[in-house]
Specification:
By secondary structure, this protein is an alpha+beta fold. About 60% of the residues lie in helices and about 10% in strands. The strands form two sheets. It has a four-stranded mixed sheet with strand order 5-4-1-6, sandwiched between helices. It has a two-stranded antiparallel sheet with strand order 2-3. Helix 7 runs antiparallel to helix 8, helix 7 runs antiparallel to helix 11 and helix 8 packs across helix 10.
Length: about 300
């Protein structure tokens, strides 16, 4: 795996060095509080940059609302150490508040066994990381497994099954949202509608990521899911205008709905917001269906015998 960052501007290199330092420092603090030996003796084996900053096709236009995120994989010694709340929440919070880090940082954490099992199955997401990823930190003696190609027939079958399941769930959420909007004269109905729309968004991105890569992170952060999806398919950018402050604020309000629409007395969303968000979800649904069907057709063609 590569370790050079020479293709990045010096500012981004400094930011990534800062992120790496914070991750390692906060992990050391977290395991120091553990009581079980396999946790207290836990190790970070790798911190890997993947996505647009690894491939050198990032976008950096924060003034227009378009800025690629840093996508990082942390590989640890045991599955128990992957729990975000127990081991990584404080690191994420510290990174988000650090004035030296000028762009969002997305984090996925997996054990070496989990990663190598996925590589052995030939899952595209992990094969891409093994091929294109850049190691920001590596502990010697813990190599990634050699990827084994997934058979074309298995890839087509898995993608088709994921598509049918998740697009159906997303469509169900959209239909529920429409019913809730009809009752939207009260704040509680509007908040429920916002939460349901968040679920529809999450399910659409899961659908796309599974069809495209056979993997999605266990995250309810739709901004993170959006970033991963748009990194794989730029056509999905069309679903969410970012040019105006109002557009960006509405997406942020939808992102917050997963928790706040259910539990915060201060959360509020207007009928105009819901109408706009509903229109954008309809666009997202059509885009996801289109690109997923294209992907499945390509996989089907590759699976046909010569």
């Amino acid at each position: 795996m590569r370790s050079e960052l020479d293709h990045l501007p010096e500012r981004q290199q400094r930011e990534l060095e800062r992120v790496r330092t914070i991750l390692l420092e906060e992990f050391d603090k977290a395991i120091a509080r553990a009581t079980q030996p396999h946790k207290r003796g836990g190790k970070v084996y790798k911190i890997v940059l993947f996505g647009s900053y690894a491939r050198a096709d990032w976008v950096d236009e924060p003034e227009n609302g378009y800025q690629s995120d840093f996508d990082l994989l942390v590989v640890v010694s045991h599955e128990d150490l992957t729990d975000i709340a127990d081991y990584w929440y404080l690191a994420e919070d510290r990174i988000a508040r650090d004035p030296e880090i000028a762009r969002p940082v997305n984090l996925i954490v997996h054990s070496l066994d989990q990663v190598n099992e996925s590589l052995a199955r030939g899952e595209y997401f992990w094969v891409d990381i093994a091929r294109d990823g850049i190691a920001l930190y590596e502990l010697h003696g813990h190599a990634l497994a050699t990827p084994k190609p997934l058979t074309p027939a298995d890839a087509h079958r898995m993608a088709r099954e994921y598509f049918e399941h998740w697009l159906s769930l997303a469509s169900q959420s959209i239909r529920t949202f429409e019913l809730q909007r009809k009752e939207g004269q009260t704040e509680t109905w509007r908040n429920d509608a916002a939460f349901t729309l968040h679920q529809a968004t999450e399910r659409l991105y899961i659908c796309f990521l599974l069809v495209q890569t056979l993997y999605f992170p266990r995250s309810h952060n739709i901004k993170f899911l959006r970033s991963l999806a748009e990194d794989k398919e730029p056509r999905l950018v069309e679903a969410w205008p970012r040019e105006t402050k109002q557009d960006r604020a509405r997406f942020e309000r939808l992102k917050r709905a997963y928790v706040e629409a259910r539990y915060s007395a201060s959360y509020a969303i207007t009928e105009d917001d819901l109408a706009w968000l509903g229109e954008r979800i309809a666009v997202l649904r059509d885009l996801v269906e289109t690109v997923c069907r294209e992907r499945i057709e390509a996989l089907e063609e590759a699976a046909r015998p010569d």
